[in-house]
Amino acid sequence: xxxxxxxxxxxxxxxxxxxxxxxxxxxxxxxxxxxxxxxxxxxxxxxxxxxxxxxxxxxxxxxxxxxxxxxxxxxxxxxxxxxxxxxxxxxxxxxxxxxxxxxxxxxxxxxxxxxxxxxxxxxxxxxxxxxxxxxxxxxxxxxxxxxxxxxxxxxxxxxxxxxxxxxxxxxxxxxxxxxxxxxxxxxxxx
Length: 190
What we know:
Layout: E1 16-18, E2 24-26, H1 30-49, H2 55-75, H3 94-108, E3 118-119, H4 124-147, H5 154-174, E4 182-183
Antiparallel strand pairs: 1-2, 3-4
Helix pairs in contact: 1-2, 1-4, 3-5, 4-5
C-alpha cells in the first residue's frame, strides 16, 4: 500500500531522484526517462478516457492501472539474484500482454482491412487515442534504449509494443469502426 503524507520532500532539488530500490540517480537517467514517459502516456490516456463511454472506459481504466504496474516495474531495477528483497518487485507479466492481444483481436474482428495509412483524427476519442499511441511508441523506444544499458523485464517491452497496437485499433473503433477514419492520400497536395 502506498501512503503519501507529504507531497514535497526537497530530496530531488539537486537533480536526483530515488528509484524503487532506494538508489538515487540523476533525474535525466535513462531509467527515469523511460518510466517518466510511461507516466506521460498514462496522463494522455486520462484525457482520452474523458471522451470514451461504456466498455472503452473500462478498458482504458484497466490499461491505466497496468501503466502504474509498468512504472513500478521500470523504477525498480532487476536485482542481483543473490540479493534479498524486502518484497517481490511488481513486474508486468505475460498474461497482461496476452490480454491486450485478445482485446486487439476482438476489436479488429469487426473492422474492414486498411487500404491506406490513417491520419490521426476523426472523433475526439480517436484523435486522443492516436496521440496516446505515439506516446506509447516513445515509451517503448525509451524502454528499449534502457534495455541496452541495464536489465529490463522483457514483458515490459512487449506490453508497450502491444499497447501501441491496441491504441491504433481502438482509435479505429472510436471512428465508428473505421467508417470515419481519415485515410492518407499519398501526394494529394502536390
